[in-house]
Design a protein that fits this description.
alpha/beta; 6-stranded mixed sheet; globular; 217 residues; Rossmann fold; 9 strands; 3-stranded antiparallel sheet
């Protein structure tokens, strides 16, 4: 499981400290799929970065007993100065994986062809997204962190991403954040609402949606 325990995140601003997350607590078990609804600027991405270990809380802690993905979002997890192949090598080295065992999958899934050997800085946005998603799927995580964007490219590639994440890895835990979140309705069994820095937990998705739409910001 992963547990967020009384996490607060404060950022300094010109007008003084700004509290984005205020004593947030949340737990997700193995195989559980939880959605987090919140408007733009509510702190959803901050919470995901803290869950991933990319950012540290001002106070509180995160207990991780699952292997967590980095935030799955458009272009996340790849470095622009490296080639696509070097990005795969680097990420596999971090997770103790032989990149050669994942190369065929990434080549086929990303559909980048010879561009896999070119710097990511030369890629279009769609190519970056395809590489990022392919590399994300090459590592076997226990829990996927999904920040708004889960698929890129045309409808055919959207469907390919959906099958890879939600069907082939349907037994994994997922934490999905969105300000609209039709996918939360489709894939999550319960949801929370992040409002004014506090988390409001609900036992089902529809109750969370009713609260979310009844509290416009």
């Amino acid at each position: 499981m992963v547990a967020v325990e009384d996490v607060t995140k404060v950022y300094p601003t010109r007008d003084g400290p700004h509290t984005v997350l205020d004593r947030v607590s949340l737990s997700v078990g193995f195989g559980e799929k939880v959605g987090i609804l919140g408007c733009n600027g509510s702190g959803k991405s901050t919470l995901v970065r803290i869950l991933a270990g990319v950012s540290q809380p001002t106070s509180g802690r995160v207990v991780r007993r699952m292997r967590m993905s980095w935030p799955l979002a458009l272009g996340g997890g790849v470095h622009p100065s490296l080639t696509g192949l070097d990005n795969l090598r680097f990420i596999c080295r971090i997770y103790g994986i032989d990149y050669r065992s994942k190369l065929e999958f990434v080549e086929e899934f990303s559909e980048l062809g010879r561009y896999l050997h070119e710097p990511v800085s030369t890629y279009s946005a769609g190519m970056v997204g395809r590489l990022s998603f392919a590399v994300s799927m090459a590592v076997e995580f226990d829990c996927f962190l999904i920040d708004e964007v889960t698929a890129v490219g045309d409808a055919r590639f959207h469907e390919k991403c959906r099958r890879e994440l939600f069907e082939k890895r349907g037994d994994r835990a997922m934490i999905m954040v969105s300000h609209v979140g039709s996918q939360i309705r489709e894939h999550c069994s319960r949801a929370c609402v992040l409002l004014d820095g506090r988390i409001h937990a609900f036992g089902d998705v529809e109750s969370a949606y009713s609260f979310y739409h009844g509290n416009p910001v």
